Every structure is written in structure tokens, then in C-alpha cells.
Amino acid sequence: MEEIEAVLQQITQGVYVVGVADGEKTHAFTAAWVMQVSFSAVLLAISINPEHHSYQLLKKGGVCSINVLSRDQSNIAAHYGQSGIKDKMSVGTWAAAITGAPVLQESLAYFDCKVSHEVSAGDHQLVVCEVLEARKINVGDAMLYSDTGDMDNSEKLY
Q1: CATH topology for 14-62+77-139?
Q2: Helix locations, 86-138, DSSP H
Q3: Rounded distance, CA 58 to CA 101, Å?
Q4: 3-state DSSP assignment of residue 53
Q5: What is the C-alpha to C-alpha distance for residues 152 and 155, in angstroms, rounded to an integer?
Q6: Cα separation of 148 and 93, whole Å?
Q7: Model confidence over 36-54: pLDDT tens digits?
Q8: Cα separation, 111 vs 135, whole angstroms
């Protein structure tokens, strides 16, 4: 399994904070499993653990933002990668996108999305989202999953 984990680290993936909303209720989580899956319509897929609080809000509210982190934002990635924090939205400045999804103003860029559909994928759900708006809001280099080391404790899952 160590070899599989080492090789999986070579798959190029960014690091994102996904903001979700159901009316006034907001939450966010760190995600590395995000990818474009269509040009027309522009669709992105997010892999999320269905046991997490964010998934429940995403499912009910049907909207999210995908916020691209910069290489110097490992503290933000670590914060939103934790569960059980009472005031999860306390790190960063948040503003509502057109859909109402929370957008992290310190991110490099964001995608404002509405949920299209989802598919079961092992211990996660693939949530396919249609991009309604996308904007660059800051300058920098995007954080890669390989930059995070074992921040997510994935070593224990293999």
C-alpha cells in the first residue's frame, strides 16, 4: 500500500476550499479531488465524504463555490480540512456569490456552481456541478495536493 500512496501523490491535483450553503447556513471544507468533466455545459466534479456536515448542506442547498488556494495558504487548507470546529467559517473573509454560496475572498479564484447530479464512488460521492460564474480575484501560484504532505492524514487510510 505504501507504493500506491506514493504514486497517488504524483497525480496532479489542486487544493480548494469548497463553500456550501443552504439558505443562511454556510460551511466549507478542503478538497483536492476536484476536476473539470465537461466543456458544454462547464461541469466540475467534487469528491466528498457523505458523512460530513458540508455534504448535508450541499445536498439540501444545491449550491457551492470552489475556491482555488495559493501555495502560501496551507493554514487555510488545514483549517477547513478539520471537522468538528464550532465556528468553521471564522478563517478568511467570506462573501456571497450569485447563487448564495460563500466565496473565500483570499482565494486566487472561484467557481460559483449549482449541483447538477451526483454518483456514488466508493466511500465518497461525486457531486457534479454546473459552473455559473468564475472569477480571478487574487494573484499567485495555485497550491498542489503534493505540496500538503500528509496534512489530511491520508497515510492512515491506506
Answers
A1: Pnp Oxidase; Chain A (2.30.110)
A2: none
A3: 10
A4: helix
A5: 8
A6: 22
A7: 999 999 999 999 999 999 9
A8: 7
pLDDT tens digits, 123-149: 999 999 999 999 999 999 999 877 655
Whether the model pTM is above 0.85: yes
149's grid cell: 504532505
Give the residue extent of every domain in the chain: 14-62+77-139
Beta strands in 23-143 (DSSP E): 25-31, 34-38, 43-48, 63-68, 94-96, 102-104, 109-121, 124-136
Q: Length of the chain, please?
A: 158
In this structure, what DSSP letter does residue 109 have? E
20 neighbors 26 (Cβ within 8 angstroms): yes
Cα separation, 80 vs 90, in Å, equals 10
CB 23 within 8 A of CB 61: yes
Gap between the Cα atoms of 1 and 158, Å rounded? 6
How distant is the alpha carbon of residue 30 from its chain centre?
5
d(C-alpha 11, C-alpha 138), whole Å: 25
Identify whether the C-beta of residue 59 lies closer than 8 Å to the C-beta of residue 129.
no
